[in-house]
Each structure stands twice: as C-alpha cells, then as structure tokens.
Amino acid sequence: MKERELEQLLEIDTYLSLASDRDDVDVLDILRETMELLEEFAERLEDVDAEDETWTTSEGSRKFREDDEPRCDREFKKKMLENAPRSDDGYVIAERAHWLR
C-alpha cells in the first residue's frame, strides 16, 4: 500500500484513529510493517502448487476429518523451518511485538 492509502486508513477507521492518538504507539509504522508482511505472504502464496489443494462441496461431504492417531509430519516441519525468517534447533524464532515493550 502507498503511504497515502495508509494515512487514509488512519482517518477512516475508528480503532486506528483512536490508537493513533496514543503517544506510545506509532500506528502508521505498525500498518507499514503489517502491509509488508501481507505482501510477502501473498508473494509466497504464488509459489504454492494448486494441484495440492483439496476441494469439497457442501452436498454430502464431511466437514471434519476422521480422528486419527497424532503423528509428526517431518516434511511439514522441514518446510516450515525453511520458510521461517529465523530458526534455531528446530524452533521458529519470532520477534515479539516491539510496540508492546
């Protein structure tokens, strides 16, 4: 999003407007970071193979999977850690919301 569009959000959104009145939070900075994350996520979604998707219909299909024994999908964990910006010893390292510090 362009800077002007973010500023317009501050003007029209009640919650953002209230938050922007606070001295301890830079709402515009938070919006910028949020939009960067969403844009990066959208770019990564472009690489997802649509053939792996599962489609169902509402007529006669089950909404829930059958319960099964819990299992660890090592391939999923490997892919998740490869996509994480930072990881250590099999765990994702994420930044705590700096505006809460």
Short description:
The chain has 101 residues and is mostly helical. It contains four helices and two strands, in the order ααααββ. Strands 1-2 form a two-stranded antiparallel sheet.
Describe this structure in words.
The chain has 101 residues and is mainly alpha-helical. The chain has a domain of 47 residues. It is 46% helix and 4% strand. It contains four helices and two strands; from the N terminus they run ααααββ. A two-stranded antiparallel sheet has the order 1-2. β1 and β2 form a beta hairpin. α1 crosses α2 and α1 packs across α3. The radius of gyration is 20 Å and the shape is extended. The two termini are 26 Å apart.
Which sheet architecture does the biggest sheet show? 2 strands, antiparallel
The helicity comes to: 40-55%
Taken from the alpha-carbon principal axes, the silhouette is: extended
The total count of helices amounts to 4
Number of beta-strand segments = 2
Rg (CA only) = 20 Å
| Global mean pLDDT | 77
Which stretches are poorly predicted, pLDDT < 50 over at least 5 residues? none
Summarize the helix and strand pattern as letters: HHHHEE
Strand order of the largest sheet: 1-2
Supply the helix-strand structural class. mainly alpha
- Cα(first) to Cα(last) distance is 26 Å
Binned strand content? under 5%
Organism: Methanopyrus kandleri
Keywords: Transferase
Pfam family, one: GatC
Biased composition (Basic and acidic residues): 60-69
